[in-house]
Amino acid sequence: MPEAYVDLRNVSLVYGEGDQQTLAIDRLDLQVAKGEFVAVVGPSGCGKSTLMKLVTGLLEPDAGSVFVDGKLVDGPVKHVGMAFQNSTLMPWRTTLDNVMLPFEIVAPHKHQLRAKKADYEDRARRMLKEVGLGDFAHKFPWELSGGMQQRANVCRALVHEPKLLMFDEPFGALDAFTREELWSMTQRLWMEHRFSAILVTHDLREAVFLADRVIVLSSRPGRVVLDRRIDIERPRSVAGMYDAVFGDIVQEIRSKIVEVRE
Ligand code: ADP
User: Fold this and answer.
1) Which residues pair with 65 in a beta bridge?
2) For the chain, which has fewer Cβ within 10 Å, the N-terminal or C-terminal residue?
């Protein structure tokens, strides 16, 4: 077993106090290896967002421990890249300046920004070029389509080369074609940069397309009920999603979710 980059050990999380308590996550064990892409799916309310908050240190477990890169998480983890459903680009900054943001706020870059500005800008431009936005660096987010904004959003999450990327339904708001395009882009970026990734999604095709392993959580309290390795060769193609092998895996995961839904 390769070294775990993210390691949740016997983690439980309770919301509320006294007789208002809700056990959201119950003794969850989950390991994500270095460079591994893991997708987490499950019925709504199973604790996917809670899991993201535990890994990034926004919530502290009531029992068990969370480790990232071998270190116990006991506060917000700053070096993680994040991409959310609604692109969170700042409307008053150009696309390039949005992508530069991690260099301004994440250590050690923020201390080196003056000295390394040209180098950082070069990296941001290369990243934009990689996703086909090379000519849009000086446009403002509101001048871009939804899909382009989300591409820039992923660039921003990746530009400082974090070793861990958290995707929370990043493509949920996009149309089906744009979404498929961004799956391919994400796969390409992952194959190139080999960060560890946790993707939370409702979209089972997205999970199977992108992930090395798909984890199914039960409805509350969330526990792992299926840990499915996806052995389909990479790079995976959108056309390949219509193959029987792909469809069978999606169906297997879907059945499991239906089974564990209340
Ligand atoms: P998911 O992202 O899978 O939809 P969440 O992680 O948001 O699920 O929530 C897990 C469970 O915890 C849900 O059943 C939800 O109702 C409950 N929950 C989430 N946040 C709170 C909160 N602040 N107070 C009480 N219960 C909460």
Assistant:
1) 9
2) N
Q: Using CA atoms of 232, 236, 242, 246 in order, give the dihedral in degrees to the nearest 10.
A: 20
Q: How far is the CA of 47 from the centre of ligand 1 (A)?
A: 6
Confidence of residue 2 (pLDDT cuts 50, 70, 90): low
For atom 7 of ligand 1, the residue with the nearest CA is 49
Peptide bond into 235 cis (omega under 30): yes
Residues with CB under 6 A from ligand 1: 15-16, 22, 24, 44-50, 220
In 34-163, DSSP assigns E strands to 37-41, 63-68, 71-72, 81-84
pLDDT for 126 beyond 70: yes
What's this model's pTM, rounded to 2 decimal places?
A: 0.91
Query: Average pLDDT, whole number, for the chain?
Result: 92
- Name the residue among 51, 13, 32, 30 with its Cα closest to residue 200: 51
Atom of ligand 1 nearest to the CA of 42: 3
The 10 Å Cβ neighbour count of residue 245 is: 12
pLDDT-based confidence at 172, cuts 50/70/90? confident
Q: Nearest CA to 40 among 228, 195, 176?
A: 228
Domains of the chain by start residue, with CATH: 4-79+164-261 (3.40.50.300), 90-162 (no CATH)
